[in-house]
Design brief:
The chain has about 90 residues and is of the alpha+beta class. It is about 30% helix and about 15% strand.
């Protein structure tokens, strides 16, 4: 990495980590709800960058509205997180 700023954090169960506030504040694109791409360029380096798919503009407001609609569904209750995990393994 280029060494502009160094900070430490602890990797938690299931690979979760918190990016320290002083680093989040340096990246204006890094806000709650931001979609990021995780890149590996070498065995010992991982980069988190803004997600941008060439030529495709996603309607994030519309996507979140649909997620909220699903969450308000009053029929048979399911586990949205469980559904997402199952769906990921099928693709």
């Amino acid at each position: 990495m280029n060494g502009n700023m160094i900070s430490t954090t602890i990797v938690r169960q299931r690979g979760q980590l918190t990016i320290p506030k002083k680093l989040r504040d340096r990246a204006s694109w890094f806000t709650e709800g931001s979609v990021v791409a995780i890149l590996t360029s070498m065995q010992r380096e991982i980069k988190v960058v803004p997600y941008r798919e060439a030529g495709v503009k996603l309607d994030w407001k519309g996507i979140w509205e649909k997620i909220e609609l699903v969450r308000t569904f009053k029929g048979e209750r399911g586990n949205l997180s469980g559904f997402i995990v199952k769906d990921r393994f099928l693709h």
